[in-house]
Structure formats: C-alpha cells, structure tokens
Amino acid sequence: MTGLKLLVVDDETDFAAFVAEVATDMDFKVQSTDNPKEFTLLYTADINIIVLDLFMPGIDGIELLPFLNKNKSRASIIFMSGKDQYVLQAARKLALEQGMTVLGILQKPFRADELENILNKYVPQSVPQSDNQNDQPSLDELRQAVGRQEMRLVYQPQINMANNKVMGFEALLRWHHPTKGEIPPNYFIPLAEKNGLISDLSDYVAKTAIQQLGTWTDHGYDFRISINFSPKILDDLDMPEKLAQCARDLNADISKIMIEVTETALMSDVAQYMDILARMRMKGFRLAIDDFGTGFSSLQQLVRAPFSELKIDQVFVRRMDTDKDCRTIVEISILLAHKMGMNVIAEGIENEAVWNILRDLGCDEGQGYWMSKPLSAEEIPLWLTKWSVE
C-alpha cells in the first residue's frame, strides 16, 4: 500500500486516531480530521481512500457525498458508524447510485483486523482517458459503422445451475472503431436511440444472432440465443412476423430465440407493448424481462405481460454474498418467478460464492465472468471443450 493516501473523517478523536494508526502501519499516507467542515480543505483529487463516519455534529457523512460527486472523486469510501447495519447499508447504496466506489462498511466498534481486511481489498482505479465527448465517435461514424463491418456480436454463455449444462448464449453488440478502439455500448446505444438508428442496429443484431443460432443447429448444438430489444423498436406491429420470417429464412428454431425486454421498458407503457409481446409469444418466441429489480414494475404488469423468463439484474447478484438486502431481493425474485411459472436467470456472477448461493436458492440459470466473458463465435468451440472438462 506504499504511497497510497487515506483521509479519515470522524469527530471521535480517539477512534480517528485508531483508524489512522492501522492505516499508517499498512504504509498509507494518512490525514485525519475530527471536523467535517475541514473536509473540503483537506480533500485532494489524489486521495485513494476516505474513511467516513456517518454521524458527526453539524454535518453528517451523507452530506459530504454531493461534494465528492461534484468533484468527480475516484476515491474509494469506507463508511463507519455506531448505528445499526441498515443505516450503513443505506449510505452504501446511496453512494453506489451516485457512481461512487464503496470499499466497505464497518460498524463501530470494530477490530483492527476488520479494517485491515477491507483496506487490503483496495485496487487503484485506472484514470479515464478523457471525459470529452469529442473523443467519442460522431453520429455520422455510427451510421457508417455497420457498413464498414465495425460492429460485431459476442456471446456470453448461460449455464444451468443444477447440472452445469450450457443452455444458450446472450448476444451482445460491440463496436470496434478503427482509430478510437472499443466504443462502450452505454455510449453508442443511447446515441442510436436518440437519432433513429436503433432499428438498423437491432436488425443487424437479430439477423446476425439468428444466423449464428442456425449455424449452431447445423453443427449439432442445441443452444438458445438471447437478443436484447430496445423499447424504441417495440412499436412496430409488423416486427413479430418479420422476425419469424427471418428465423425461417436462416433455418433457426423460433422456440430457441429469446427476446429480452428491460423492466424499465415494461414500466413505461406496458399497454403499448402488449400487442407485440403477445404476438411474439404466439409465434413461438420466448420472452424475458431483463434487469429485473431496477424499475418499479407492479405484479399486475408482470401478470399481463407474457414473459417466460426473468433475469435478475447484476447490481443485486454481484453483491449478494456480502449484502443481506441484495440477497433478500434475489431470493424473493426467484420465488416470485417460480410461482409465476417463469425460468430465472441471474446475470453478473463474478465469483464462486455467488454461484453457490444462487444454486442453493434454486436459481435456474446464470451468466457472468466467473463462468465466461462474452466470446466471439470462433472462441466458443474451444470454451465448450474446456467447460465440459472442468
């Protein structure tokens, strides 16, 4: 930890000194204050970790978060408090929602080894190359990208958690710009949605993914393909038939095609989408509600929409081994889906502990980097061989 900077903010001087002593012994360069109003004077952009007490006279720790957010702080935060765990968890979630990194939470009094364990988890964050939107491709470049074959699909495996069988793959769109490298989907997808290009991108994804499904079938594989659809294209009444015709033309089994629609899309106007969703199920497509738990869907909406699968959002899955509330949300989601006759897929599995918890809770399938990163079509045969051996 040599050279890393840590700032302690705690009005209890003895406890602040204790934290500072532990961090100093781990070779952190430590600053400490018992006056939260001095925080803005001591804070610098190169501070790596902030150990922040939640309850202090005159100002509380939560009130310092807007300052960190405004200054685009890349410091990792450790919250501590003598209050109950629910307060600490609430602070943690609030910080995460604002895009901050929370290294851990500690309930006072805590031991030196508890603090050391959290500090040892710290991994320095890479500095973003630029926040300048001018460094990103333009709208015209996006229009040309498909024609120049800069777009491609990668496929992330979806695994049966009871027997480790590969059930299928989720198709994910990637853009490799010739001079600017990999362009993140959270940049170019909204750009396409705002400028009327999302339909073209969706056509490319659907045709390429369905063609790949047909190729797998020709090679003897019994896989399913999952395709994400933007809510911006769920107003085309001809889409179910066009998609079904595409599957027939490409020799793909419609029952092996799953269309994923986000919960927030369902929330916006379920009535508008019911016609299309219902007719897609009638054509034989499977439907999944994606990112479940991040919106505010009512039980009535879930009943009305003809979904066959429910995907639990990774924001809950990733933290369920350390966050009791996240685990509870996942457990309830699994029970709800099963009661409604739905298959459950958890996304964002990044370690064995989460896999084991999900399996014990009866989750049907999972996907995530612990099993495999998204793969090109050419990489899949070798991965399948390794997965079957393991």
What attributes does this structure have?
390 residues, alpha/beta, Rossmann fold, TIM Barrel, 2 domains, eight-stranded mixed barrel, five-stranded parallel β-sheet, 21% strand, elongated
- Under the CATH scheme, the architecture of the largest domain is Alpha-Beta Barrel
Q: Say what the CATH topology of the largest domain is.
A: TIM Barrel
CATH class of the largest domain: Alpha Beta
From the helix content, strand content and strand pairing, which structural class follows?
alpha/beta
What can you tell me about this protein's structure?
It is a single chain. The chain has 390 residues and is α/β, with parallel strands linked by helices. The protein folds into 2 domains: 5-119, Response regulator (Rossmann fold); 134-389, EAL domain (TIM Barrel). It contains 16 helices and 14 strands. The model is unreliable at 126-133 (pLDDT under 50).
Short description:
With 390 residues, the chain is of the alpha/beta class.
List the helices and strands and how they pair.
Layout: E1 5-9, H1 13-25, E2 29-33, H2 39-42, E3 49-53, H3 65-70, E4 76-81, H4 85-97, E5 101-107, H5 112-119, H6 139-145, E6 151-160, E7 166-177, E8 181-183, H7 185-194, H8 198-218, E9 224-228, H9 239-249, E10 257-262, H10 263-268, H11 270-283, E11 286-292, H12 299-304, E12 309-312, H13 314-317, H14 324-339, E13 343-347, H15 352-360, E14 365-367, H16 380-389
Helix pairs in contact: 1-5, 9-11
